[in-house]
Batch of 2 targets.
Target 1
Amino acid sequence: MTADNSGRKGGGKAGKGFGPARPHDGPKGAFKGGRPPQGGRRPPRPQGIEARAVAVDLVAGVQKGRLLDALLDTGATAERYQRLDPRDRGLARAIVGYALRRHGQIDDAVGRFLTRPLPDDAGTLKAVIAVSAAQILFMDVADHAAVALGVELAGGDKAAAPFKGVVNAVLRRVSENKATILAEQDAIALNTPAWLMERWSASFGADVARDIAAMNAIEPTLDLTVKSDPDGWAARLGGIRLPNGSVRLPVTGAVEKIDGYEEGGWWVQDAAATLPVHLLGDVKGKKVVDLCAAPGGKTAQLAALGADVTALDVSFHRLQRLERNLYRLGLKANLVKADATEWLGGTFDMVLLDAPCTATGTLRRHPDGAVGKKPADVATLAALQRRLIDQAIRMLRPGGLLVFSTCSLEQEEGPDQIRRLRLIEAPLDVVPVTADELFGMQEIVTPDGFVRTLPSHLKLEDARLSGLDGFFAARLRRQ
Ligand SMILES: C[S@@+](CC[C@H](N)C(=O)[O-])C[C@H]1O[C@@H](n2cnc3c(N)ncnc32)[C@H](O)[C@@H]1O
C-alpha cells in the first residue's frame, strides 16, 4: 500500500493510519499543529526535538549539495549544533550518520509507500522523512516517538507542513514493515551510488568493490597520530597500536574529551593519511612545502619530525583551523594563504601535494559524500590536480622529492596522473615504494610502486577496528 503525497490535507485516499497527525498520536504536545493553546503560550517543545531539528537541518544542507563538515563548521546550524547538550549532540550526530550512510535503504523503504516522488520544493520534507526513517530503521529509538517528532518537525516548517499527513503515514508504514523491508534490501547496492560501484568494480574487481561498500556502511573508529610513544598512548587510551604507529581507539564522537587532547600529545588522522609523509623519508632539517595543507594533519607530521615546513592553503578559514591545530600541538610551520596553482615562493627539497579530490576513499568517515558527489566531479578535480602537479614541479630543486596523494579511489585521481607525467615527459622519475618502508604492509603497495589503500584493507580480528581510508600516493624525484 502507498501513501498519497500530494500534500492534500489528510493524505488523500490512503487507508488506516494515513490521516493527518492527531493529538493523541505522539508525545504530549507533539501534534498540536503548531497552534498556540488558549492564552497564547506555546506548549513546551517535545523532548529530544531540538536534536532532531538540528539533524534535519544538517541532512537538508547535504541534500542541497553542502558538505557536512562545512555545515558543522560555521553558520546558524553549526551554532545550534554546538548549543546542544553533549548527549543531544551525540544523538544528532548519530542520526545524521545513519540518515546519510543508509540513504539508499531509507529512500527505498520510504519509496515503497509513496504514490509519487516527494516534491523538491517542500522545504525540509525530505530531510524530515530521512531523519525519522533512520531512527525507525536503524536506531534504538521508540518508533512512535520517531514518527511523532517527525510530524512535529514537518509541522514546524511552512513548506513541509502541508505534508504532515504524508509524513505520519509513510513513517508508520515503514515502522510496521521494517523487518520485511530490511530483510529484502541489498544494503550495499542501495547505499552506494551505482556509478561509484561500477568504477570500483572496474578498478578493483566486483568482490573488492562490494567489500569497500560494506566497510563504508560502518562508522569507523578513531585513529590518532601521536607525537611519540604510540605503545604508551595505546595503553593509556585503551586503544591498539597499528603497524604504522597510529593509535586506533574503539570510540567515535567528541575528541576534545579524550585524554591528552589539551596537552597536544596527538591529533586525529586516519592511519592511511599518515602514509604520504612517510614516503618522504628523513625530513629533519629539510625545506618542505605542504601545498594543500589544511586542516594540517600532514603539516603536523612534518613539523613533529623536524622539517622546516611551509604550509599553504587557498582557504583562509581552513588555514585558521590549521593554525589552531598547530598551536594546540605546540608545533610550528610557516603559513601561507595562496592558490598553489599560481604560487611560486621559492625552491624546496620536498613538495607534498595532498591534493583536493572527490574523496571517494573516505566515504565511511564522510557519508555525505555518497549523497552529494557526481561523476563529473572526477574530471573537474583531476584537471585541478594536473595544474597543481605542474606547479609543484616548478618548486622542486633538482633531486628533490614530490609526493602526490589523494584520498580518492578513482583512477583519474591516482595512477592516471602519474601516467600523464610520463606521457608529457615531465622532468620526474617515479621512486617506487616498497612494503619494507611501509611497515611490511604489502597489500597497500601496487606492482608499479604506488601506495593504494582501500577501506577494505587492514582487516583485524575485531571487525569494528578494521579498515583504512582509501588513499593513493606516488613518490617522484625531480631530474
Ligand atoms: C585533501 S585537503 C588537504 C588535507 C591536508 N593535507 C591534511 O592532511 O590535513 C585539500 C586542501 O586543499 C585546499 N585547496 C584546494 N584548492 C587549492 C589550491 N588551488 N591551492 C591551495 N590549496 C587548495 C583545500 O582548501 C583543502 O584544505
Note: The mean pLDDT is 91.
Target 2
Amino acid sequence: MATIREESDYDSSRSSLTAPGSRRSWISDIGSSSSVSVRSFGGGGGWDTPVASCRHHKPHKANQAEWEAIRRVRAASGGIGLEHFRLLRRLGSGDLGNVYLCQLREPWSTGCLYAMKVVDKDALAFRKKLRRAEVEREILRTLDHPFLPTLYADFEASHYACLVMEFCPGGDLHVARQRQPGRRFSISSVRFYVAETVLALEYLHMMGVVYRDLKPENVLVRSDGHIMLSDFDLSLKCDVVPRLLRHNSLPHAVNGAGRADSDKPPSCVPPIQPVLSCLFHGVHKCHAKAEGGADDGDGEAAASASEPAAETTNPEVVVEPVSARSKSFVGTHEYLAPEVISGQGHGSAVDWWTLGVFMYEMVYGRTPFKGESNEKTLANIIKQPLAFPRVAAAGGKERDEHLRAQDLMAQLLAKNPRKRLGGCTGSAEVKRHEFFKGVNWALVRSVRPPEVPRPPAALVPPPPAAQKKVLMMSRKERQEPFKPRSDERFECF
Ligand SMILES: Nc1ncnc2c1ncn2[C@@H]1O[C@H](COP(=O)(O)OP(=O)(O)OP(=O)(O)O)[C@@H](O)[C@H]1O
C-alpha cells in the first residue's frame, strides 16, 4: 500500500507530491497549534554513549538476549556504533531510508538479530525531511511497550543516522492478510490484532504521541506472533494534560447498538493539577479540585463544570492528547480522517478513525471509502455514509460477532471526531465496546496469537562454516530485499 509523503509538522517546506491510487503516507504542513517537542540529531556522530544508553533502559526487555548482547558490547567498548554490526540483508526501504537485518560482530551474539534503519542525513536535509527522522528517533527513544519497537541503540556514522530496533520476522499484516482465505482475517484474528493495536495506541497517546499512520503495512508481526507498530516519522508529539471526566453512568457501557444512551459525547472537565497527586491520593479528591479548576477554553469543559456533582457520577481519568491540534495534511489517502482532509485541526481522535479503517480492511479485504482516484477517495471520506459489504450468511454466534464488529467500526468511523468512539475519553471507551467482551486487557500480551511465524531458515544462526559464507556475501547480495522462503508459511493455531 503506497503512501504519499510530504512535509510534516516539523518540516519547514510544503512540497507536494501525489501518487494516484497509492497508499503511501504523506504530510503537507499547514501548521500546527500543538506544542511540539523535538531535539536535533545531536553529537555530530559516532557511538552512542553509556549516558545515552541509560535513557535506553528497557525494563520489560531487560532479560532479553538481544538487549543483553547490546549491553555487553557497550560495556566492553564504552559505546556502540556501526562498526559493531554486520548488515545481512535489506529488509525494506521507505521514504526516509533503508532497513537492514543485522547482527553484532561478536561470535557469541550471532543468534541475536536486529533491524537497523539507516537514514542518509544529507539526503534528508536536502529534501527538508531531516526533522521527521529526528522526531521518529525521539519517539522511539521514549517507547517501552510490548507492542511497540524497542530501540536498542541509535548512533551516527558519517552522514548516516542509524536506529537499531527489534527485528520482526513475520512481515506485516498487509502481506499476512493476502495469505488468509478470501484475503480476509477471521473475526477472532481481527479481535486479537485490533486489541493489541488499541493497547499500543493507548500507550502512545499517554506518552503524548498521536501515531497518524496506522495501516496494515505498518503493523509488523514479531517472532512470537504479537504485533509491533512501526514507522513513527509521521507521528505528532504533543503535550498530554490529564483530565478528569465524569458522566452519569459510565459512557459507552454499550447498549444493544454499542453506543452510549445519548449521542452526546461525554463532556470533559478542566485539566487536573497537579496530576500525580491526583492519581496517588484518589480520584474523588481530584474531582472536587477539578470542579474549581480553570477552563481550558473548551466550551464543553465549561458546560461540564457547571453540572451538579451527582452521586451517580463515575469519574474517569483521561490521559490522552484529546485536545492536541495539528493542521498538517498527513497520512495515507484511504486512511485519512475527515478532520484531516477538511484541515479543521486534528488530535488523537484520528488514530481511532484509522483504527476503524484498519479493522474494516482486515474484515472485508478493502478500505471503506476507496474511490477511483485519490480525490474521489477524499470526497467519499467526507460525504459518503459508511456501508458494509454483504457477507455470506453465517450462523448465530458468528453473525452476532460480525454485528458487534460492524457496530465498533461504525462508532470508530463517526465523521465527527467529537462523536467518535475514543474521540473524547480515548482508549477506555474503545476497550469497553462489546466487540472486546471477554478480552482480558492486562493479559493480551500472553494470549496465543492466531499465527506465529516460523523462523525462516535463512535467519536461523548459521553453523560456523556457513557463517563464513554470510560474511563473504557480495555487496549486491546484501542489498537484495529479504524474502521469507515461500514454504515458510505461518503455523496456524
Ligand atoms: N523492525 C523491523 N523488522 C522487520 N522489518 C522492518 C522493521 N522495520 C522496518 N522494516 C521493513 O522496512 C520497511 C521500511 O521501514 P519503515 O517503514 O520504517 O521506513 P520508512 O523510511 O519510515 O518508510 P515509510 O516511507 O513507510 O515511512 C518496512 O516496510 C518493513 O518492511
Note: The chain is about 30% helix and 15% strand.
